[in-house]
Here is the input.
Amino acid sequence: MKNIAIVTGASSGLGREFVKLLLKEKSLDEIWAIAREEKKLQKFQKKFGEKVKIFAIDLSNLDSIIEFGKMVIRKKPNIRYLVNNAGYAKFCSYSDLTVRETINMVDVNCSAPIAMTLVSLPYMKKGSHILNISSQASFQPLPYLNVYSSTKAFLRNYTRALNVELKRKGVSATAVCPGWMSTRLYERAKIGAQKTVNNFSGMVSPDKVAKKALQDARSSKDMSVYGGYTKASHLAAKVLPQKIMMKLWKIQQRF
Ligand SMILES: NC(=O)c1ccc[n+]([C@@H]2O[C@H](COP(=O)([O-])OP(=O)(O)OC[C@H]3O[C@@H](n4cnc5c(N)ncnc54)[C@H](OP(=O)(O)O)[C@@H]3O)[C@@H](O)[C@H]2O)c1
Here is the structure.
């Protein structure tokens, strides 16, 4: 039985940093890297070596996840880590996207991590870890990042409740809540909307977020928050009314 880690959205940004760190774990035989673009994944495998197995899957398609689940059943790996990292944002108002575009974001950011968790859990033993990448955007409602922040709040709640349910099994579930990170997320997020997010205060590099997230997962924490700016925003969202938090966001973004 092979010891493996599964990382979704592995070919870029934060996911790539998780793969780099997990490659250092000697107990892991393989890292299963998932993203949509096969060519990017092939380049990725060339760079990081044969220990990385690649799977070109569009996680917005539930049938594809169910097919992936059938392969998991056939191979019966010992899944030591599941990192549900794939996700994306759109910086715009509710009316700037079609219904299909809006629901796709919900599928990738919410439905896919749940489906991946459900197909993986039967193959996760005591001492294994699930990391779901939520966001600082989960701490409060964010006008003009409305759907994205809602998906991340959903994922954070799901993860923290799951962590409690999994205590008996000895598997941890950690909601990772990064602030702004220097990744390619912005290429897909900026669609030229009239009102758009343009203040990215407190930006950090994703390697630091990944390192802390793995440390926190190994300590069975149900949340991982990296950096002073994001921690302050978390605290503010706990003590201030959400209406005030939304006002502060609007001032910061000059909406
Ligand atoms: N960057 C930030 O400021 C920030 C802040 C907080 C939280 N986050 C969260 O961090 C996570 C990683 O984002 P990132 O910043 O590293 O962005 P990124 O550089 O754009 O990476 C996204 C990764 O997800 C994959 N992906 C996107 N859609 C997919 C789909 N439908 N099916 C399968 N794979 C898909 C992409 O590959 P393909 O395009 O080839 O599919 C890529 O590998 C996301 O969940 C994001 O919401 C980011």
Observations:
- The longest helix spans residues 99-120.
- The mean pLDDT is 98.
- The radius of gyration is 18 Å.
